[in-house]
Amino acid sequence: MSDRQPHPLLPTPTGLLQIPEQAVTAENPADPSAGSEAPPVFFSLIVPTYNEGKNVENLVKILSDLLTGQVPGGYELILVDDDSPDRTWEIAHSLTATYPQLQVMRRENERGLSTAVIRGWQAARGEILGVIDGDLQHPPEVLLQLLAAIEQGADLAVASRHVGGGGVSTWSLLRRVLSRGAQLIGLLILPGVVGRVSDPMSGYFLVRRSSIAQRQLSPLGYKILIEVLGRGKIRQLTEVGYVFRERVEGESKVTRKQYIDYLRHLVKLRLSLGLGRFLRFGTVGFTGLFVDLSIFRILRVGSQLWFPTLGIPAELASAISGEMGIINNFFWNDLWTFGDISRQQRGRKQRLKRFLKFNLICLIGLALNTLIFSALFRVFHVNEIVAKLIAIAIVTFWNFWINLKLSWRVTEVK
Ligand code: GDD
Ligand code: MN
């Protein structure tokens, strides 16, 4: 056993969840009597813990053996414990005498995995910030690949269960379905954020301090990665496959509350990132619906008033008003929803090309809408208004996704 004294506990940051541009320097943990400020380190790894008393010694030993001598510029481990009933923080604190790179933060007035990680990053000295679970379900050796990815220029390096070499051990079908279901909902609400990684649920990654510094983070629950993706400046991103291991000691703290927090977090992030392309697209769709219905009524009622003999048949009125609705939608989508992309590709020819593609996709959407409506209404005997709304919702996703990929994306300036 070392004759060194355990370090003092790290003070718990309070106030805004914002990471400083410059790493803070603590009292020199190796030799607090020296009074000198601790030297900066290259890499700070946060280990959030709650009731990990049986795992912590093993984890600290494995991480120290793995990282000592491997990380040029040095590293630190910051264990952030939320005052666990099994006194994980106390066990870890006693280990700081043996492992000088280990620091311990005991949070008594705040709880939650994501905020624990951010408070750890606020107290960290490293240029690269990381997070790993404290229960050995995240294989520590993957850290070396994540560090290599950062050295090669990545702003964010994520350990993913869903890329080559990845997987989950013996997860129940329910846990797999819940995890994938949560990912799908994330893709619908935040396609530009959740869609950037194959495993947005991952709690195992490294990020460059400069990519998230000075940004006010406000996560909910467990999913710190989507907060970093949503609010950080992440240009280059790398994923490394890993197999999520079986827990040996203790148990998962994931409850229904975490799933509800996740949904609340998605909506909160969605709203704070602005209406977002998809919601703008939906808003434009509503104006198109209004234009379509108004012109339809004008044609039908007007023609009976002004040209009683002529009269415009309902199908012709519907086709004309439908097309007017599509033109309306193209105009506003090109100006507002996809304005950032269309402004890079001015010129009448480009615009006409976008309009023709948009029109074709919307006409296919119209046919799809009719098919879905009649299947629901005629075959499944769903109420006609409900059938209509379901058909419109499905086709809206179709129109949005295909237009994003074809009409606006393809004509992007190469
Ligand atoms: N400080 C703190 N406060 N730590 C917490 C809290 C908390 O409220 N809740 C959980 N932890 C710690 C646990 O002690 C563990 O070290 C880690 O966070 C993960 O918690 P688990 O309860 O073991 O989560 P899981 O194994 O079901 O899921 C984990 O892995 C998934 C895949 O990477 C979590 O990291 C998920 O976020 C992740 O999606
Ligand atoms: Mn776990």
Key features?
414 residues; alpha/beta; Spore Coat Polysaccharide Biosynthesis Protein SpsA, Chain A; seven-stranded mixed sheet; two-stranded parallel sheet; elongated; binds guanosine-5'-diphosphate-alpha-D-mannose; binds manganese (II) ion
CATH superfamily of the largest domain: Spore Coat Polysaccharide Biosynthesis Protein SpsA, Chain A
- Low-pLDDT runs of 5+ residues are 410-414
CATH class of the largest domain: Alpha Beta
Q: Which distinct ligands sit in these coordinates?
A: guanosine-5'-diphosphate-alpha-D-mannose, manganese (II) ion
Structural description of this entry:
- With about 425 residues, this protein is an alpha/beta fold.
- The chain folds into two domains: about 30-275, Alpha-Beta Complex (Spore Coat Polysaccharide Biosynthesis Protein SpsA, Chain A), CATH 3.90.550.10; about 275-405, no CATH class.
- The chain is about 50% helix and about 10% strand.
- It has helices spanning about 55-65, 90-95, 115-125, 140-150, 175-190, 190-195, 210, 225-230, 255-270, 275-305, 315-335, 340, 350-380, 385-410, and strands at about 40-50, 75-80, 100-105, 125-130, 155-160, 165-170, 205-210, 235-240, 245.
- Helix 10 (about 275-305) runs antiparallel to helix 11 (about 315-335), helix 11 crosses helix 13 and helix 13 packs antiparallel against helix 14 (about 385-410).
- The protein is elongated.
- The chain starts with about 40 loop residues before the first strand and ends in a 6-residue tail after the last helix.
- The relative contact order is 0.09.
- Mean pLDDT is about 90; it is low at about 410-414.
